[in-house]
Amino acid sequence: MMEELLRTNNPVTVSFAEALLGEEGIGHFVADTHMSILDGSLGILPRRIMVDGEYLERARRLMRDAGLGNELPEKPVR
What we know:
- The protein is of the alpha+beta class.
- The chain has one domain (2-69): 2-Layer Sandwich (Alpha-Beta Plaits).
- It has helices at residues 11-23, 36-39, 56-65; strands at residues 2-8, 28-31, 47-52.
- It has a three-stranded antiparallel beta sheet with strand order 1-3-2, with helices on one face.
């Protein structure tokens, strides 16, 4: 089951997180990528990075180690 790792409207953060997850071999996908159609490409609707639930804690640790801890929700969103 896929679970939300983080949510942001910053495209640089999304790219950085995707690169980190890819390097570690953690399967993921970015949800809500095409929502910009609804917000007129203003970037106000955040994108969610989803990971397999069994890798969620590993992915959270990876984000914290890379300095993205402030982007993570306090508690995992299930």
